[in-house]
């Protein structure tokens, strides 16, 4: 990565403001149900504190409050969790800009301060320069460690970098290094597993990776549009009818480039999603039946291709894994990836990360991205505004 990181700048005695991705899931009682994103920010937080900074001011968004103060989307649960993880007091403020915030920071004895939800202000998502300046006024150095929002040009990710020396945290650096190497210089064979509901969500990704990968394994809901393009019966399976020609074009492009595309050969089908006890495995989907998972033949074929891989990027589940009856394909692939030796396995955030967690293989993957949308855009070859705004080495 050619951007400066926290290791390239003197932090001693400085006030540091750091953008984190603390957009964590909460239950009805406002308890955090998955603290992965908070844990992922700890190496950078501990490093900055260890360098003797005068104050570390953390900021994040939570949920989608749309410029309103939403009590259920305050960052108080995050502050409590941070205190537990750091073993020290965290000052939780009830705002993120203004004189009162400045005063509280100046008076506090705590080393770590957490600002209130940035998105309580409309100006955050509008990348308003005045709002950026107010955030910048709280510190002397800006650190971005929020890969999950790096694809957004917001005040706290892109705007603030115009007012302060801006560097990357370790999480952002790690994400860019792993995803960047996978796209630009992968150990080969380089295999991409693509799933999820829609082809339309992954068009740019497929177009970019057809030029880079040795094989694409396509499952999930998006596979049915490709199968339709090949003239197969898909029953009442999910279909993007307006993308059939595009799918056909992508298949032809892959063939011309010598990229192997492996599609589902057999399917777990049902007539009624709510009646999984009536599911069956077929190679041809009849009218009135819906495909919800890949079958054993497909799983075996996917494993065969993966067995020789040296780099794997997994983006999207191959079935409706949230429901156990339709989770077998995703579970088998996740568990198989965990056994691969001498292979870099990268999980592209979002549902794939949830699946890796559900099937207890997250610690066996080389890297699990903390940003679904950001990792997708990065793998598509797009420039991420939050990364572009940082100082070059």
Describe this structure in words.
- Helix 1 (36-50) crosses helix 2, helix 8 packs across helix 9 and helix 10 runs parallel beside helix 11.
- This protein has two domains: 6-168, Phosphoglycerate kinase, N-terminal domain (Rossmann fold); 176-379, Rossmann fold (3-Layer(aba) Sandwich).
- The chain is α/β, with parallel strands linked by helices and 393 residues long.
- The model has no long low-confidence stretch (mean pLDDT 95).
- It has helices spanning 36-50, 76-86, 99-107, 122-125, 129-136, 170-184, 203-209, 223-229, 244-257, 296-306, 328-337, 350-358, 372-379, 385-388; strands spanning 15-19, 55-59, 90-92, 112-114, 141-144, 166-168, 190-194, 215-218, 260-263, 267-270, 280-282, 290-294, 311-315, 344-347, 367-368.
- A six-stranded parallel β-sheet has the order 3-4-2-1-5-6. Strands 9-8-7-13-14-15 form a six-stranded parallel β-sheet, sandwiched between helices.
Supply the key terms.
14 helices; 393 residues; elongated; 2 domains; Rossmann fold; alpha/beta; 6-stranded parallel β-sheet
Major pleated sheet: 6 strands, parallel
Briefly, what CATH class of the largest domain?
Answer: Alpha Beta
User: Total helix count?
Assistant: 14
Q: CATH superfamily of the largest domain, called what?
A: Phosphoglycerate kinase, N-terminal domain
